[in-house]
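Example 3.2
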Amino acid sequence: MQFHTVDSLRYLTFEIFPKNVIHAVFTRQGGFSPEPWKSLNVGGTVGDERQRVRENRYRSFAAIGRERESLFDVWQVHSADVVIANAPHPRLNDPPEFKADAMLTDNPSVTLFMRFADCTPILLYDPVRKVVGVVHAGWLGTVRHAAGQTVKNMQAAFGSRPADILAAIGPSIGPDHYEVGPDVIERVHYSFGQDAETLLLRRNGQTHFDLWKANQLSLEYAGLRQVEVAGLCTACNPDDWYSHRAERGKTGRFGVLIAVA
């Protein structure tokens, strides 16, 4: 994992991916938005002005040399649904065409783009089939195994072999800050079975959920063995990341994009 800065815009990349995988997990630094979205907010539903959000997105694409017209994104709904992006969808004022929480493409002219503020970004690459993907997994997407479902879609749509796929788990809320209640605990036990207790941390009468480890397990259940985990908590690092929970909902969204050259 390595941080980069381009024209005051700061982002990280993962060492697990080869150079032909164009990807970035953008911090909140280097954009146009004022407080409470300061400054590289790419979330269009959090109260920020649409023009600023659009300019922040354009600036993100420019920082890593991708054309804004290559955009493909979705309306994120905490599902395990996966969309195959065969061509760009460079919307201007219209909302995304699809509701889903994962995207895949093997088209070099497509840049997959998602938004986050505590939920877990998961980036995928199959170096054999030249397929990239990105997943949005909050607690609900995690217990629905959105990451594993995306791997299954890579197998079905592109013939990918799980053993070939490389994965990276980006910054999200860490287990120290992610206290959960009985409903989430029950779903974790249902979804992860005998592994559930390794994901639920008991401290001072509270239970915390480890999204990083849970999503890594979901990928391993699907057959992956090559996973890089950033281990960066959004709630612990407000200078770099938006955190819905730490900032009590008054915040922006950071962007994640991936494409294959």
